[in-house]
């Protein structure tokens, strides 16, 4: 695996060489712990083996779901808070031009992605529902526990909207 090269030329006025040398021991320890899967939090380091080692069946399910959402919906509501919300937001911002989400439906290649569950503001939810309007929409809930208040509230609201629009069975798909 390639190593990261650290160019510290621009910090030499602020950090002495001996301070950097002292940090090297910590860097080596963290590097070893990450590569060997040891240390605190080692159960959360599966990302290190990406993109070569991953659950291909899960990835296929995600791709199938993405195709279904793209074919069925003009809007995707992502429900989450904290990292669950911010990870999605960062990926979308990284992969698309900045105002892609604001283009009309016929000018976007993918559904408009809107976010819910990151606050308990009823005004935000009402405005979001107005933005969706009568367009077809899908919902993606991202939650580690499923019990965080803000996403739980948003899920219940959007589940109800899905069921009213598509019926109970239609909402499930």
Can you describe this structure?
This protein is mainly alpha-helical and 173 residues long. The protein has 2 domains: 12-49, no CATH class; 56-170, Rossmann fold, CATH 3.40.50.10490. Helix content is 49%, strand content 9%. The protein is built from 5 helices and 3 strands. The chain has a 3-stranded parallel beta sheet, sandwiched between helices. The longest helix is centred in the C-terminal third of the chain and has 24 residues, at 149-172. It starts with 16 loop residues before the first helix and ends with a helix. The relative contact order is 0.11.
Secondary structure: elements and pairs:
Blueprint: H1 17-36, H2 56-72, E1 75-79, H3 83-95, E2 112-116, H4 122-132, E3 137-141, H5 149-172
Parallel strand pairs: 1-2, 1-3
GO molecular function: glucose-6-phosphate isomerase activity
Protein name: Glucose-6-phosphate isomerase
InterPro entries: G6P_Isomerase (IPR001672), SIS_dom_sf (IPR046348)
Secondary-structure element order, N to C: HHEHEHEH
Average pLDDT for all residues: 91
Query: Could you give me the name of the CATH homologous superfamily of the largest domain?
Result: Glucose-6-phosphate isomerase like protein, domain 1
| CATH class descriptor name of the largest domain | Alpha Beta
The rough form would be described as: elongated
- CATH third-level topology of the largest domain: Rossmann fold
- Gyration radius (Cα, Å) is 22 Å
Number of E-state strands? 3
Uncertain segments: none
Q: What is the domain total for the residues?
A: 2
Strand coverage percent: 5-15%
Task: Tell me the distance between the termini.
Answer: 41 Å
Number of helices: 5
Major sheet: size, sense and barrel closure?
A: 3 strands, parallel
The helix fraction, in percent, is 40-55%
EC number: 5.3.1.9
GO molecular function: glucose-6-phosphate isomerase activity
InterPro entries: G6P_Isomerase, SIS_dom_sf
Keywords: Gluconeogenesis, Glycolysis, Isomerase
